[in-house]
Write a structure and sequence with these properties.
395 residues, alpha+beta, 4-stranded antiparallel sheet, 3-stranded mixed sheet, 16 helices
């Protein structure tokens, strides 16, 4: 018997006590769901990735597409592995910590999944499960947000949820606003069964996608996905710049319209309200209500501040985001598009930012600044060459 009181079996399936202990610990460390899958290669998933890459639907995206043989075979990460303990941690309660936008102080929005370092919290929680397995005498390795494993495929296999038409894993009654990760182990745990599809005939996510990136049930053309285009190096496609709106990093549209997510949000809100009413009834003195966004979540970024910040400042503030080649120019490129979509071209600060980037000599940023200037009706700031570079017609 291990220190945790877990009985360890021999070569067969581990005693049920270990699984009970894992589920209990998962709940204690804030994981919303946990399931177990075998660590056998996911051949079907590999074939899907390879097919979509052949069709160009990956659009240069490297995550899990880089090496499908590796990302679909847990044995590559831990030889001799027998089990995947897969878990989900929730994010995005909808609380807003940013100030409202103003015409002369444009702000860029940040997707729910990027407002805090949720993956750091997830890895810490998964580390607790890995520790429990190790103390019971088994090897264990944490995999989260890692090219070593297709997280969503593992979650589906472990019975956490089904593949939604928006390409996300939807947990029954809980939705898709979760980060996913696994603990890979040689412990022979009993496995869970995949859950049935719950989308039915609903296609709200497809209708809501601002660029039509969802081209089939669970099929995305990454070359049209705003979330990926914001991370991809090089020029942001002209034809999708207006659709970007105020998005600086990420896009939530296909999730926020999902009925499973909206029902889960209403249920969670009702639970919070009930708890608050109970607290007010039981408390001897009035309790101060926590301010929205008090957890330090970043949901909006001042665009003019971003455009005036140094490379070091930008990496210090946003370095946990995926920034291609760790080059802050990608953030500035995104910010210039948001500026063009949301700012007041008559503002002196906006004009100063446009002049600075139009004169920067950086072809990437000059072209996006030229587009923004045209969009804001400030062609007077442009040279003939810059006018051509910023052509909003996309020709």
């Amino acid at each position: 018997m291990a220190d945790d009181g877990v009985v360890v079996a021999g070569d067969g399936v581990v005693d049920a006590e270990l699984l009970v202990a894992l589920r209990a610990r998962a709940a204690e460390v804030g994981l919303a769901a946990m399931g177990v899958a075998s660590a056998e290669p996911m051949v079907g998933v590999r074939e899907v990735l390879e097919d979509r890459r052949r069709r160009g639907l990956d659009a240069g995206m490297q995550f899990t597409y880089r090496n499908p043989l590796r990302s679909t075979d847990p044995q590559r990460a831990l030889p001799g592995a027998r089990s995947l303990v897969v878990a989900a941690m929730g994010y995005g309660d909808g609380a807003s910590g940013g100030a409202p936008s103003a015409p002369d102080r444009p702000r860029g929005s940040v997707a729910l999944y990027a407002r805090r370092d949720y993956y750091s919290e997830l890895r810490s929680a998964l580390g607790e499960l890995a520790g429990l397995l190790q103390r019971a005498g088994w090897r264990a390795r944490v995999l989260a947000d890692d090219n070593a494993l297709v997280d969503r495929a593992a979650a589906h296999k472990a019975g956490l949820g089904w593949f939604g038409k928006n390409c996300n894993i939807l947990l029954p009654d809980l939705g898709s606003l979760f980060v996913l990760g696994s603990v890979l182990s040689d412990a022979p745990l009993s496995t869970d069964k995949p859950v049935d599809d719950g989308c039915g005939r609903c296609t709200r996510c497809h209708s809501a996608c601002p660029t039509g990136a969802l081209i089939g049930a669970g099929i995305m053309d990454a070359s049209r996905c705003l979330a990926w285009l914001l991370q991809k190096p090089g020029d942001f496609p002209v034809e999708f710049r207006e659709a970007l709106g105020d998005r600086l990093y990420g896009c939530d549209d296909c999730q926020t319209v999902c009925p499973v997510n909206t029902r889960a949000a209403r249920s969670a809100s009702a639970g919070v309200d009930a708890n608050r009413r109970s607290a007010r009834t039981d408390a001897k003195e009035p309790q101060e209500k926590a301010a929205p966004g008090g957890t330090g979540e970043l949901d909006q970024v001042d665009i003019l501040d971003l455009l005036s910040a140094s490379d070091g400042d930008l990496l210090a503030r946003f370095g946990r985001w995926y920034i291609p080649k760790r080059d802050p120019r990608a953030l500035r490129r995104n910010a210039l598009i948001v500026l063009g979509n949301t700012a007041d071209g008559r503002s002196q600060e906006v004009e100063a930012a446009l002049r600075r980037y139009l004169g920067s000599g950086d072809a990437l940023l000059v072209s996006h600044a030229a587009w923004a200037a045209q969009r804001l009706g400030r062609e007077d700031l442009l040279s003939p060459l810059q006018l051509q570079m910023g052509d909003v017609s996309g020709k």
